[in-house]
Amino acid sequence: MKRNLFGTDGIRGLANNFPMTPEIALKVGMAAGRIFTHGDHRHRVVIGKDTRLSGYMIESALVSGFTAVGMDVFLFGPLPTPAVAMLTRSLRADLGVMISASHNPYHDNGIKLFDRDGQKLSDERESEIESLMENGLADGLAAPGKIGRARRVDDAQARYIEFAKRTFPKHLRLEGMRIVVDCANGAAYKVAPSALWELGADVFTIGVEPDGLNINQDVGSTAPQAMIAKVKETRADFGIALDGDADRVVMCDERGRIIDGDQILALIARSWAKTGELKGGGVVGTVMSNVALERYLQSLGLNLVRASVGDRYVIEKMREGAFNVGGEQSGHIIFSDFITTGDGLIAALQVLAVLAEEQRPASEAVHMFEPAPQVLENVRFTNGSPLSNPKVASAIKLCEQKLHGGRLLVRKSGTEPVIRIMAEGENEKLVRDVVKEVAQLIREAGA
Q1: Is the pLDDT reported for residue 209 higher than 60?
Q2: Which of these is catalytic: 54, 100, 102, 194?
């Protein structure tokens, strides 16, 4: 069944414009509430959000929808996406909801749904919700005495902080370590600094003054220059930059050198394989993962299994192969021993645990391999996806041949009107030239 509202990471769009309107949010609440209501017990849904101004509007509409079909609603306020997934399970909720557009600017927003196990919904479930939104919302409304109630959970942030700290080895502390944490003026602006401080670190913060309009604005994982500058200014040992909903992370060493998701996967794979904690004989990455990561893992006798882009597809591959570590180059890192979705804070804590155990600076410990030349570029379009144009598809194939065995990946984003281009090969100039050529093709076709 075709999905018109849901993309690769829930529903997302410009706030107060289709599909991110109060009307759609109301219908999502009613439809999802209907589908996840089974049996005679009091059903409950938990809702978290990031710091966007439009979060209040979307939250209120969702509450109306869920209570209208008889679900009780527990409201967390600003909280990371992985915390919502964790608390969905902890509170025995039937459904979890996160209101966020992740790394997008403040004017976008989104709705992500989790099942009772804290897993993102399958494509089939999302299609079922869309179908019900189009047909049948008049049925299933609760009787006046069965309408749901809504209440705030005041200690949700404290619960998540304790959960995150428990993933850090008990025999280790972060005492003496100077850490910069950039919270992107987003959902982790309170929990991330608190967790690091409680583990003993000297914490320097940026991106912890949300005003509803500044989420991801020149801060966070998509603008790591702010983190790098703060690390150098404070002479810190390590930098952590989260995105708006804190499900992804980019880090840097004491010299300001970036540590991306591929390097994180390599470090954890090496460390956990040594201690016997790594499962599945390797890790799960994506088609975007650098070929040098694959070669490095092979040198350790480990495998890299590639999934489609999107943490939900990484998680599917992890389940299939019984892996406990997976992630994306962009910084969505999943540790299934701890959490069911990408978690930027927990990923940072696992890297910090290796540094604390080995007593080495990040510049020596974290850079496992030298990446092969890889160039990324995003091209916005306005008149339908240019990739549906046969001439463009044919031209892209010709461009790929120019890489002489390198890789060219051109795909439509599942969360915004953007074509993402990635080329990889041994010759950096050739790689850049190919990306430039493909980008121009797409601009001409999608203008």
Answers
A1: yes
A2: 102
